[in-house]
Amino acid sequence: MNMKTVLILLGLALATIFALVCVLLTRGRAPSTCQHLPLEQEDTEDGQSLVFADLTPEEMVQVVQYLQGNLGVQLVDASRAKPSDNCIASVDLQVPAKAEVLRFLDGGGARPTREALAVLYFGNQPDPNVTEYVVGPLPTPAYHRDVTVQKYGGKVPYHRRPVTGKEYMDINALIQRELKKAPQFLTTCCESDGTDLAILTTAPRGFNSGDRTTWFVLFHNVAGTGYYLSPVGLEVLVEHRDLHVSRWQLRKVFYNGRYFASTEDLEQEFLARTLEVVRLKKPQADAVLGSMRPRHSPDSLGPLQIEPQGPRYNVRGNRITYQGWSITFGMNPNSGPRLFDIRYRGERIVYELSLQEALALYGSNCPGGMSTRYLDGSFGIGRFAYELVQGLDCPYTATYVDRHYLAESDTPKTNQNSLCIFEHDSALPLRRHFSDSQSFYYGGLRKNTLIIRTISTLINYDYIWDFMFYGSGAMEVRVHPTGYISTSFLHGEGTNYGNRVGPHTLGTMHLHHMHYKVDLDVDGQLNFLETQDMEYEIIKDPWSTQNTIERPYLRRKRLEREDEAAFPLNAPMPHYLSFASPNPNKWGHPRSYRIQIISFAGKHLPINSSMERSVSWGRYQLAVTRRKEEEPTSTSIYNQNDPWTPTVAFTDFINNETITNEDLVAWISVGFLHVPHAEDVPNTVAVGNSVGFFLRPYNYFDKDPSVDSPGSVYFSSEQDARACGTNPLACLPTTAACAPHLPPFHFGGFLNL
Predict the structure, then answer these.
(1) Residue 542 in contact with residue 395, Cβ under 8 Å?
(2) Of 92, 283, 290, 460, which is most buried, counting CB atoms within 10 Å of its CB?
(3) For the modification 2',4',5'-topaquinone, which residues carry it (predicted)?
């Protein structure tokens, strides 16, 4: 045998081995089923969604540099600015006027000028104030204009500004100096010298416009655990209104039910043995109430959501498309998630859907707890939406998106992977029917949902914000609160204000109320509001007239004015309330979208409260007003620190204007009363606390649009349901073999803290 023959045989052998290996590797699966399916072709929009896009870090830097060079005053970086300095507090997108945007999106008009909104604190002026500037055009700014008076009717007083991180640091330093004046008391009560105690702010800060006096609550702080469950009974009142930090003062001390003028007085009473002291052991990490460390080793892996043929949605920049849906998304650093230009099958349903505010109002027999009314927008709902944990906060294979913001610093910051998008299989039919009469068949469609999610951590609470889109043309908005409860030191009649959840810990009762803006454009901008409800009429039966029937009938009503469309919180509402178009569907009914609210709200503040106007949006579970460019938000970040003279009072929006065939906005409040209990330790669970609302098509279509879904299932008794060509569910065993390659777990969420 010559060399040439040997080489030929060797080549044939290698080819055979290679072919066998390929067969073995692919046995039992059809390679074609594992290929990613092409996404449905969406209408091209040539970057139109960018009109709503959040600012890029580069744009933020350009705005900062422009302001530093063109205001004619010295600007100190807000991260180290004293109250007596000038600084840039924040920079965000200036959303263009709706008329301009619609001319661009729908009418072929010019793209609106891209601009930023910059908030500045001017402390180094004869008349300290907060000023807002619109800066443009981006990306290369050349002008700025003061819009403060235009927006708020006057200058914003300096005392209304949110508290900065630097101000908190200076307050903490003052408290530490004061604690040093009570060393023996601290050693006895808390096994502490004060430096290892956590200090928690309350808000608002006083009782009258102009006050800036805050109660701070002290807790045992154990690394790696939630200090919120370990109050030591000590609270201090700090006055910090003066522009000069050296003039700030500690005004009052509270301990275990008693008030003192100073920490020196507290120490003297302790030394005189006239003070009842509760001796607390310093908690250990493995026994502290707030520990979330696992008690057991990991169990077997639970169900895992995968996309065998890749995602069925598409994310391009700030725009998502999914089975007929098109959504533009963004994040306001103060008020949080915001969506724009929501379309279904090419038709705009919602122009803007945005979170406005989150209120947490507490009760307690301790001063910090009883005076707390957190307005989380002033702290930063969007700013404190940190990186999401893949596989727990969102499915492992979700699409994660970074969000950028500039607040309390001249340098932009990035919260990586802080918003996620995914399709969710709820393991429930969206619709189904099994026919057992006349003919035998089964038809149905899985309830798959596109979810946009972000999670804000606001001190102790974590709010999971969900926006969901269904194949039926419906939308759902949900918030799921979790995290730690806030607590007070248990003393006296404390259980009148909550439940005991630890040796000396009172879980304080509170309510959570959230407010949303929904600018619906149902089959056009001009809509009217219609309600429908059930009544009974008593009639004689028409076939014999001998008997009576209680016949339900539909009572329709068109609401003509804003006062009619302002529904008080917790009062009965019509079961059906819809934004309706003058245009009918095929069957002659107005094309409409129904608002359906799911809420268990607590009681709103009494209207005679001195601070009620600052949260007057909470009076209403739903209020519908005419849309006005000068009424863009229901609240203001300045309301927190001056709720007695609110910068924005929502109730002023409702002035009985006509709402027939107008551009309308629905303002929706949802919430729940929370009385903490033992099962809230260490964390409140989201089960049972979720609230929100639906936007559902109501005669908008001529039939359920989900019938056109390619995922529909139908087979009859005359068909072989096991055949993949007949029943898509029969294809699952093969398709499910296409398990995706999961990337390594990554988390960098601690880097920006």
Answers:
(1) no
(2) 290
(3) 461
Rounded Cα distance between 490 and 297, Å, is 34
CA 172 vs CA 216, 256, 384, 597: distances in Å: 9, 21, 21, 42
Residues 630 and 694 in one domain: yes
Q: What is the CATH number of the domain that holds 325?
A: 2.70.98.20
Q: Nearest to residue 513, comparing CAs of 569, 573, 575?
A: 569
Q: Do 480 and 397 share a structural domain?
A: yes
Q: Are residues 341 and 193 in the same domain?
A: no
Distance CA(387)–CA(399), nearest Å, equals 13
CB atoms within 10 A of CB 509: 20
Q: Which amino acid is at 202?
A: T
- The answer to whether 351 is a known catalytic residue is no
CATH number of 211's domain: 3.10.450.40
Q: Rounded to whole angstroms, how far apart are CA atoms 21 and 391? A: 34
Cα separation, 141 vs 67, whole angstroms:
9
Beta strands in 492-638 (DSSP E): 498-502, 505-508, 510-520, 526-540, 548-559, 566-568, 576-584, 590-598, 620-626
Pick the catalytic residue: 461, 470, 497, 698?
461
Which residues have CB under 8 Å from 264's CB, separation 6+? 181, 182
Q: Is 143 a catalytic residue?
A: no
pLDDT for 6 equals: 44
Could you tell me if 64 and 189 lie in one domain?
no
E strands along 521-589, which residues? 526-540, 548-559, 566-568, 576-584
Could you give the CA distance from residue 576 to residue 590 in angstroms, rounded to a whole number?
A: 14
Q: Which residue range forms the structural domain that includes residue 186?
A: 165-272
SS3 501: strand
Q: Which residue among the candidates 54, 85, 170, 376 is catalytic per the annotation?
A: 376
Q: For 722-740, how does the pLDDT look when each residue is reduced to its tens digit (9 = 90+)? A: 888 888 888 888 877 777 7
Average predicted confidence (pLDDT) for the chain: 92
Alpha helices per DSSP H over 591-687: none
For residue 232, being part of any structural domain is answered with: yes
Same domain, 52 and 110: yes
pLDDT tens-digit readout, 647-681: 999 999 999 999 999 999 999 999 999 999 999 99
User: 243 lies in a domain?
Assistant: yes
Distance CA 73, CA 281 (A): 52
Query: How do residues 178-226 score in pLDDT, each as one tens digit?
Result: 999 999 999 999 999 999 999 999 999 999 999 999 999 999 998 888 9
